[in-house]
Amino acid sequence: MRQPSITIIGAGFGGVGTAIELKRAGYTDITVLEKAGGVGGVWRENTYPNAACDVPSSLYSWSYAPNPDWPHRYSHQDEILGYIERTAREYGVSDLVRTGVEVASATYDEQGGSWHLLTTDGEAIDTDVLITAVGQLSRPSIPDLPGLGSFTGPAFHSAEWDHSVDLRGKRVAVLGTGASAIQFVPAIAPDVAHLTVFQRSAPWIAPKINIEYSPVRRKLRRRQRLTQAFGRGLTWQVTDRFQGSFTEGGPLRLAGELFGLGKPPVRGGADRSKQRGQVQNP
Ligand SMILES: Cc1cc2nc3c(=O)[nH]c(=O)nc-3n(C[C@H](O)[C@H](O)[C@H](O)COP(=O)(O)OP(=O)(O)OC[C@H]3O[C@@H](n4cnc5c(N)ncnc54)[C@H](O)[C@@H]3O)c2cc1C
After folding, report:
1. Distance between Cα 111 and ligand 1 center (Å)
2. For residue range 125-179, what is the model confidence (pLDDT) as tens digits?
């Protein structure tokens, strides 16, 4: 039987993982189209200070490609990007990726039963199967703020951090208090002359207890795969159950409400009174 041609758009975690799984399932005619210069998706683009994952690295990785060498419980951007690049290489996906190719349109031909893609360079590509893995955060959204165009200082989106700008001693304004700001605001705060953070709606936050793994621990995990699997399983159980217990009807949430402790400091159940005391919303 003829192998179907499969085209994946995007070479982030999603696209690379899909290509690995398709290869494992026996498909051979796979192409990954990536508009940027390499694999990694948001982990290639987001280089702002202190960029890291918020999910423990042992879970924020492919289960079949565990990494005994994660240096931290919550690894940094360069470590995650290195992991994606390495895994793509090891699983033979790097060779399937065509970089610098941006898909502009996709049309399905009902009669021929195939997809017609057109790239921004005008190249036409036909494929039997089309899989989009374009993510949702790969195109920074910059609001149309009055006066932004005439602002003479440096201005950039955190996903396109301008490392040529020295923030030391400058008056800096940050728009937004999402996951990225939560990471880079504390990192730049000690250096800048003054920092103003504009917040529309407050996010829920919880302390992020990060630890650096010792070389001995990493060596043990490398040699004893079982200890690594055990660590991953334990992390999964603890984080899943712990977080689940804070959700509506969960035991910790109920206990907190019962004893008047307020709601726990995670999304969906945060202690609003504490937050109100610390953060002023307009
Ligand atoms: C700073 C940051 C931290 C994050 N931390 C976490 C975390 O801790 N835990 C968690 O679960 N999630 C986290 N996320 C969410 C993250 O987006 C996902 O976990 C995951 O990495 C998304 O992978 P993806 O492949 O779906 O998308 P992306 O990584 O966005 O990859 C999409 C790829 O498609 C390419 N592309 C887009 N359009 C086209 C086109 N038309 N033609 C060709 N190529 C195209 C892009 O260039 C990009 O490389 C974080 C996101 C960011 C930005």
Report:
1. 34
2. 999 999 999 998 888 988 888 988 899 999 999 999 999 999 999 999 999 999 9
Determine what percent of the chain is predicted with pLDDT higher than 90: 61
| CA-nearest residue, atom 20 of ligand 1 | 13
| DSSP H helices in 13-72 | 13-24, 42-45
Closest Cα to atom 48, ligand 1: which residue? 41
Q: pTM to 2 decimals?
A: 0.86
The one-letter amino acid at 159: A
Closest residue by Cα to atom 30, ligand 1, is 135
In a shared domain, residues 171 and 224: no
User: Using CA atoms, how far apart are residues 192 and 169, in angstroms rounded to an integer?
Assistant: 5
Pocket around ligand 1 at a 6 A CB cut-off: 9-15, 33-36, 41-42, 46, 51, 53-55, 60, 102-103, 133-135, 137-138, 179-180
Same domain, 226 and 119: no
78 within 8 A of 84, measured Cβ to Cβ = no
Contact 38, 12 (CB under 8 A): no
Residue 141 falls inside a structural domain? no
Measuring CA to CA, which residue among 216, 217, 188, 203 is closest to residue 270? 203
Whole-angstrom distance, CA of residue 264 vs CA of residue 271: 6
Neighbour count for residue 247 (Cβ, 10 Å): 14
127 exposure class (CB count in 10 Å sphere: 0-12, 13-18, 19+)? buried
Do 123 and 11 have their domain in common?
Answer: yes
Helix (H, G, I), strand (E, B) or coil at 137: coil
